[in-house]
Design brief:
By secondary structure, the chain is α/β, with parallel strands linked by helices. It contains 12 helices and 15 strands. A hairpin with a 2-residue loop joins strand 12 (about 370-375) and strand 13 (about 380-385). It binds zinc ion. Zinc ion binds near residues 332 and 335. This is NEDD8-activating enzyme E1 catalytic subunit.
Length: about 425
């Protein structure tokens, strides 16, 4: 965690430094926000007051930091847990070969500070301090966690949202030649979890599914990768599967097709095979640049109030030509993250706890990773299942094969579920079906 901080009003400003920004803020124009009065105040706010948190200092993050610093934001904090890898250097342009191994956030902040005069970094912060948060992440879990964090900061009085508690979240995402940028006003517009179905499905599957009951093309590819390759060693002993070797991928692809045919599963392609085997999201520098530019523009629009923000989801695709459109993602009435309504879980009393667990991880609208389920019984907290602590996992594992009735759960019982996808506990209401 590092800060790119404007030493506001310092000697580092030269005449006309912000002329390009002033054109947007100090004169009116046809695209201006209807309530905006051009003045010098917006620029002062951006330069001196506005505090931005950039999450991720990778491909998108480097672009975002550069764009924001050059747009006049001088109080930019950046957080990233990764260290720099040599493979980042082609597009993560704030890093040099000498930086390999160092934390991304530190190096990115140093670079911006040295190249954009007036920009500087403390290491502790509260999310509450920020006016705007920008995410340039490749992890859906991290994105959902941040979404949940901002939702947890919302203040409701008599059920009415206090607008001053809203911290806008600008979220950018890219995958190869595709990308999206969105503006989220937590509690007001669709949140990350409202549109979870839009994200690609997970790529880590339970072994039993892969081995005995595949349903998706990915399951078939995983079967070949994990079980068949080590058994058959098609390229000689000790030859590890290499995702960059076309012959290896071709072999896995053919075997996956055979496996898929056995279970009448369609959708196995060479490209999908490579994607599953390599477990990577290909990075394209131009896509990152376009999406980061869109995100930085949204930050500028919100910080200055000079223009209406994107409403609220922009899709970008330059696989074949260039295609882009925007739409308004809608809030989901029963969103488990932002609706404030406990979701119902419909199960029969004879369902096993394992089925509830599977639902939490496999449902497209929940996509939890390692849910821990607790409930209250006779006024006491009871952990039904918890995976993250080995001793508790061992103790609660037998519950998975018990039915809900055997566990003493009643119709209408509240289940509290904790997961890495959110900082808050999600409440569910158990509804028995007959
Ligand atoms: Zn939501």
């Amino acid at each position: 965690m590092m800060l790119v901080d404007g030493d506001a009003g310092s000697t580092s400003d030269w005449d006309d430094r912000w002329n390009h920004i002033k054109k947007f803020l100090e004169r009116s124009g046809p695209f201006m926000h209807p309530d905006f009065e051009p003045s010098t105040e917006s620029l002062q706010f951006m330069l001196e007051t506005c505090k931005i948190l950039v999450i991720g200092a990778g491909g998108l993050g480097c672009e975002l930091l550069k764009n924001l610093a050059l747009s006049g934001f001088r109080n930019i904090h950046v957080v990233d847990m990764d260290n720099i890898d040599v493979s980042n250097l082609n597009r993560q342009f704030l890093f040099r070969a000498k930086d390999v191994g160092r934390p991304k956030a530190d190096v990115a902040a140093d670079f911006i500070n040295s190249r954009v005069p007036g920009c500087f970094c403390p290491s502790f912060y509260l999310y509450l301090e920020f006016h705007i948060i920008v995410c340039g992440l490749d992890s859906i879990v991290a994105r959902r966690w941040m979404n949940g964090m901002l939702l947890s900061l919302l203040v409701y009085e008599d059920g009415v949202l206090d607008p001053s508690s809203i911290i806008p979240l600008i979220d950018g995402g890219t995958e190869g030649f595709k990308g999206n940028a969105r503006v989220i006003l937590p509690g007001m517009t669709a949140c990350i979890d409202c549109t979870l179905e839009l994200y690609p499905p997970q790529i880590n599957f339970p072994m039993c599914t892969i081995a005995s009951m595949p349903r998706l093309p990915e399951h078939c590819i995983e079967y070949v990768r994990i079980l068949q390759w080590p058994k058959e060693m098609p390229f000689g002993d000790d030859m590890a599967l290499d995702g960059d070797d076309p012959e290896h991928i071709q072999w896995v692809y053919q075997k996956s097709l055979e496996r898929a045919a056995e279970f009448s599963i369609t959708g196995v392609t060479y490209r999908l095979t490579q994607g599953v085997v390599k477990r990577i999201i290909p990075a394209v520098a131009s896509t990152n640049a376009a999406i980061a530019a869109a995100c930085a523009t949204e930050v500028f629009k919100i910080a200055s109030s000079a223009y209406l923000p994107l409403n609220n989801y922009m899709v970008f695709n330059d696989v074949d030509g260039l295609y882009t459109y925007t739409f308004e993602a809608e809030r989901k009435e029963n969103c488990s993250a932002c609706s404030q309504v406990p979701s119902d879980l419909h199960f029969s009393p004879s369902s096993k706890l394992q089925e509830v667990l599977d639902y939490l991880t496999e449902s497209t609208s929940l996509q939890m990773k390692s849910p821990a389920i607790t409930t209250t019984m006779d006024g006491k907290n009871k952990t039904l299942y918890l995976q993250s602590v080995a001793s508790i996992e061992q103790r609660t594992r037998p519950n998975l094969t018990k039915t809900l009735k055997e566990l003493g759960l009643a119709d209408g019982q509240e289940l509290a579920v904790a997961d890495v996808t959110t900082p808050q506990t999600v409440l569910f209401k158990l509804c028995f079906t007959s």
